[in-house]
Structure formats: C-alpha cells, structure tokens
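Hey team,

Filing this mostly as a record. A colleague (T.K.) asked me to run one chain through the structure pipeline before their review meeting, and I want the input and output archived in the tracker in case anyone asks later how it was produced. No errors, nothing strange. Just documentation.

Input sequence:
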Amino acid sequence: MELVDQFLRKINYLRISVTDRCDLRCVYCMKENMNFLPKNEILTLEEIERLCDNFIDLGVEKIRLTGGEPLVRKDIIKLIEKLNYKKNSTNLNEITLTTNGTLLKTYSYNLKQNGVDRINVSLDTIDEDKYNQITRFGKINNVLDGINEAKKNNIKIKINTVVFKNFNESELEKLIEWSNLNDLDLTFIEVMPMDETDTPRDLQFVPLNEIYDKLNIIYNFTKTNYKTGGPAKYFKSDKLKIKVGFITPLTNNFCESCNRVRISSTGKLYMCLGQNEYVDFREIMRSDRNDNFIQDKIRFALSLKPKRHDFIINSEIKPYMKRHMNVTGG
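Output structure:
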C-alpha cells in the first residue's frame, strides 16, 4: 500500500513534531518571549505512536522526529524504542531526528541503541559569540560535545546551516572546512517566511544561488545523485571528503518531487510547509475514532496537498504562514 497525492507524488516520509518547546530561541525560528502550549494541547506519546502506526500502514518508510527540540520531550526515548520495534518488520526502514545538539551528550547512546543511525544537527555558526547571539543564550560547547558523543556512538551526522544575511555569510567557507575536518556532511538552507519573528524576514533572507556561485569558485563543485529522502541537492569537490548540500525553497523550489507531510505537536497534519491548510488529527483521535477512520482522513488530507508552496519574502508583505518554525520543525 502507498500514499499518492493528486499530482501522483508518492508520500513515504512523515515528519512529526513531538513538542513546540525548545531550550534555545533562535532568531529565525521564534520570538524571544514565546508562549508555549499547555500540556493538554500537545499529543501524548501514545497518540504520536498511533498516528505513526497508521502512516506506516499506508506506506510511510521514513519518520523524522522534530520539535521545537525533540530531545526536551519527556520520555522521548520510549517513543523511539517503540518505533524501532516496527523498523524493518513493517514499511518503516528509518527513524531519524533533527536536533539543536545541546542534549546529544546525554542521549546519543540511547538514540543509537534504539535504531537512530542518522541525525541532523542545526548549527548556523561555529563562532562562540555569534552562536550565543543567534540562539539568544546558547553555549556552543554543549553542541560540539554532543556532536562528538554522537560520533563516538557511530551516529551519522549532517549539519544544517540556515544562511542569514549580515550574520554568517562571511563564514560559510569556514563552516565547510570545519565540517570537512570533522567528516560531517553540510547543508545550507534558505530562510523561510514562517510567521513573524523579532526581525523582518526580508532582512534575514539570502538567495542561495548567490552563495553557491561564490563557493563554487573556491570548490569547483560537481553535482551528485546522493539523496537522503529530503529536498537537498548535494555536491562534491576534489578539495573535500564531505558532501555539501543546498536547500532552496524560494530561489529554486523542489515541490515537484515532494514526498513528505508534517504533523505538528498538536496533531495538525500539514500537507505542505508553505501552506496554512491542515487536518486536525488530535480531535479525531480523542473522539474515539477507529484506525480505519483515521486512515480515510489521511487519504482525504493527501487530496488537499498543493502543487507547490506559497512562500514569499517581501518587505511589503507579512509572512503568509501563520505558525512559527517550532510548530512543525521545518
């Protein structure tokens, strides 16, 4: 069985936010003084597992846990352990997560023991002062220690870097060299207009085609066919042992090959990161509907998946997306 939308795109990748909370306050992700949701509005771990089970039954092969910061969710390892039981005995063949890395030193061993072989770590600078500035109070050594611990446990790590105007543009080569030294693939990501933060989006945005052109002069990139199930286009260089990826939702959208849907920590299924439409599965599950009903609703939701996103960055237009990045985790 498989999920296919109205444009014949196969949907085999589920990203599910397990919490809206985070131990950082990155400036492009949320406002400094965020009000987080009360516990009763967040899906329980049992509800998350049930939703995952239904998506797996319908053909989902990869599940990524996001936040907020997924590792701040109490008993997150218990959820991962339960998902791991299903891996390879069902359609599911990969469990992964996106993390800011601050808690990896504590959780790396348990992640590896429960089937997490690959993670993405969000890291926008390796400068200690800049890191504190962009996260508002983070300590970069916590992340670096966490990355080292994950490597000791043989977890493959990819670094995700959001390119931020007048902030980290000048150190992208340095980030590449640091990633290469530590044998960490690196992906650059454009700022996305997800609700309003304390800085206007047009003052944050840098087109990645311009960044690619500058870096290509140094590295003479060659395109690869490497895929991780996501939208990044990866390049290699004779000067590097790692792959460098680019995710360009605005300058070169990848909607025609979209294979994923997202569930917020409150159970809202978003068919597209760049659209506001959703189907509320929390209320469905809490009204004692059976799994057949849930799967019918999933198929219905897929019929609403748009051909492309509605992202736009313009100083005259407020962000169309009425949710912050911590709601769905990118």
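Quick notes for T.K.: The mean pLDDT is 89. The chain has one domain: 3-328.
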